[in-house]
Fold this protein.
Amino acid sequence: MLGGKGLIWDIPAQGKELFLTFDDGPDPETTPVILDMLEQYDVKATFFCVGENVDKHPDIYQKILAAGHAVGNHGYNHLKGWETEPEKYVENVEKCNAVVNSSLFRPPYGKIKRSQRISLRNRYNIIMWTVLSRDYDARVDKNTCLEKTWKYTRPGAIIVFHDHRKAIEKLQWVLPAYLQRAVDRGYYFEVLGVDVKF
Ligand SMILES: [Zn+2]
């Protein structure tokens, strides 16, 4: 649903659909592991890719696309919005768009200045989240990560995980457990529409 300020925090649910997202890849050590887990559950997700990682690992990026997942823009250099001049910020998003062609943009660190938002919102759906798994946070153990992520899961939720070194150890346990539980409770997974301007 389009929240205040033109940011998208969830999707109006038709049924029990969920929208899994993975930020910060593609990464040769973690993305393939996640792709394998998703394949086992026949689940499609949306990968918010960092442009420079796509340029470094084009083969991994192609694997994401070949598996039928959607991709979104996570900036070319994962810049901190609050430390970056609006022009430079928008330029960096456009630079990412040259390698990740998508109407979806997720601001790195989930923070974006008003001026940056206004510059981007006509071209991109700015995708935030309903549930932040905190999979990257060393202070959150795997059980807490699973239970907290599950607690806030509801139809139409956008859930954030990371294909990132900081998250992968936890995710190897959390992701299959989460997917199994979701499937058992009648949820199904869809990708965010990359061609749609909401
Ligand atoms: Zn990120």
The mean pLDDT is 94. The first strand starts at residue 7 and ends at 8. The radius of gyration is 16 Å. Residues 4-8+16-189 form a domain with the TIM Barrel fold (CATH 3.20.20.370).
